Write the structure tokens for this entry.
Amino acid sequence: MYSSLLATIEGFRAALHSIRAHGMRSMLTMLGVIIGVAAVITVVAITQGLSYSIKQQLDDLGSDMVTIRAYTTSEQELLGFENTLSYDDFLALKGKVSGLEDMTAMMQPFSFGSSVRFGRNSTHTQIIGSDSSYQNVVRTYPQMGRFLSESDDLRRRRVAFLGSSLIEKLKMPDSPVGEFVSLNGEWFRVIGVAETVGSFFGFDQDNYIIAPFSTMRSLAGKEVTRNIDIMFRPSKGASLPEIQRQITQILRKRHGLQKDDPDDFEFRSAEKTKKQFNSVTQTVTLVAGGVVGVSLLVGGIGIMNIMLVSVTERTREIGTVKALGAPPSFIMIQFLIEALILSLLGGLLGILLGYGFAAFITLLLPNLTEVLVPFWAILLALSFTTAIGVIFGLAPASKAARLNPIDALKYE
Amino acid sequence: MASSHSDTANIIDMQGICKHYQMTEKTFCALNDINLSINANDYVAITGPSGAGKSTLMNILGCLDTPSSGQYHLAGVPVTQMSETQLAHIRNHSVGFIFQSFNLLPRATALENVMQPLVFRFIAMKARKARAAEALRRVGLSDKMHHFPSQLSGGQRQRVAIARALVTNPEVLLGDEPTGNLDSHTTREIMQLFDEIHDSGQTIILITHETEIANHCYRVININDGQIVSNTNHMRTEKCPIAMEQVAHV
């Protein structure tokens, strides 16, 4: 046991000496592993960074917020049906469901198109009709002016709350509160501008206009406002399944659904989206990791190849140390440790290089704010390279250990 | 570097040693019934023409190979049936090899080369360095300790190899044509060094085909066709001056 430990220490020393002595060859041997690990780390860092930043943004959007949306099964679609949620559904739910912090209705009146005009400037935007509760549910706060009030909705005032990027797009004054914008030929007075949220993978989240629900309904006509989204935020500590149960009961009854009929609406939450996104990220990471893992395998074969060449090249040297009393186990350990050091060193350099690559790519992708190399990825990369070192080092090490000292000494 | 054995004890004892190699159709007999005893502090030359079996005998003497049959005791230890690991241990503890082409590790300094056999004994680094430095001092290379083999002359390289062979205090020093790659002047220097080492009590066996080198030893064993054809004690009044003069003027 003690002599094995000493043999390992001496083998380690000898291996380090050999790696130093053959610096260039050692570097070339490691290259395959360095590139392989760097690729793995880059891919993992980017996917994890993406996942992290999307999660962050979803959290900012409000992970507690749940949207109820009409759901039409594919069979119903084939039969020409389209299920909808109506403003009456919203009214039926509002105040009837317990455990809610707030609830709001949202519509996107398509008859309004998507064009907004200020003076001579116009741009495309998302036009939303909602009420004062929208602010509480979606967590949209004004950076200037105010949000829609209850009376705006009750009195069908022609007022609008703007997403911040519209100021620039429409070349509005820095403080546009009190100015008028035109939606589909109707004038709306700007009452507030929202805090900037930023873009979400190229999608500008500050490009919208919110006007009172009742105003939009009266202007757009009942037909085009047939289908609305209902959004709510549960109170702290409230049970979401219980809330969903109450809503389901009310809506199913209102829609006259039979016991066996499927729901004609669905619940969508940021949490659910996050879960779906996580599963996509995991799949991408696994697939990319697997593909890049193959390159690591090639790197391992490279190590074996060069180690085998190294054994042949050092045959005479091996013969000499055998003549001086090196037992086969010592030669075996030395070559194995040499392969292990090369692959592990390659792994470590690969991790650093991969981190560097990922940091560089982060600079190019504005939404990727952080390079995230999880501990498991580092552990995996190092375990994999260790395994490669041992597996692909075995053949050359065993070849070296089995060399006949007489033949090795004669080798030219 | 006195041996642990008394002057009369057999360091080498070979009885009926044979070595056969299986060729494609017939068996080639490299050594045939070799009986050989070498005492402690002997200074022996094993000589013979090419293909006589010198190298095979040296390989068996140095425990690099095992005989096909017969008994071989090295310093009283039967080595015939030993495994490669056991033979490696014997080589490390009882044999000091000196090769014709020096066989130094090219990327290690003189000191590191001499330290090499001690690596397999797991001696502490400090003691290893001290012993290697002492061995190098003994062969007159104290000032070349940190030189690489490529920075040394042929004679200096062979001195490093001799220091490496001596550093483990072996029972027997085995030289395989140790002056084969050296010029006459360096040959003389190296032989003088062997003389000094022998004077300190070391058993030396030199494999050579050069008569002058063989005559320099106290005992000459001549082999041919795998058999010992003569085994004569070579009494010298001094360190073979004529032979050395001849070598010096070649």
In short: Chain B touches chain A through 28 residues (CB under 8 Å).
